[in-house]
Amino acid sequence: MWxxxxxxxxxxxxxELMLEAYDRHPQAFTSSxxxxxxxxxxxxxxxxxxxxxxxxxAFEEGRLVGIxxxxxxxxxxARHKATVFGMYVSAxxxxxxxxxxxxxxxxxxxxxxxxxxxxxxxxxxGNDAAFHLYQRCGFIQFGLEPMAVRVGEDYFDKIHMWxxxxxxxxxLNEPR
Length: 176
Fold this sequence. Notes:
Layout: E1 2-5, H1 11-24, H2 33-37, H3 41-49, E2 53-60, E3 63-72, E4 81-89, H4 98-111, E5 118-124, H5 128-136, E6 140-151, E7 154-163
Parallel strand pairs: 4-5
Antiparallel strand pairs: 1-2, 2-3, 3-4, 5-7, 6-7
Helix pairs in contact: 1-3
């Protein structure tokens, strides 16, 4: 298993894995599989080459099986913030520590940007595994957005969390 920053050469695998994520866990993402499936490959490539995004992948046996991104805020008054997005690990590769390794990659990237003071993310209420992973990585809940995502006739709340980027990475290995 290894983690690396994705680039345009990974666009097809990235697209396939994100479409799997949107399909299998529609409540976890604000985008739908229907919206994203029609996007051209060039759109996915641009996501991986944008100066405002850093997307990391977890690979097993040469196959992309997990992803997470960090989006930097372009607006002048908010450039001190970044947002974790698109965290997903294929079901057959869960419980192997890939989520933690992906978060370590994102936090490591954040530490390369000294002006960055806040990292934020949202997690679907009820996704206890992800919530506890984020807590372990130093994220703290600061709010709950009711009815944040609608899937069919069902609504799902989102928990808002934040962290400062300079949490010592050694602490990620210790239970919180």
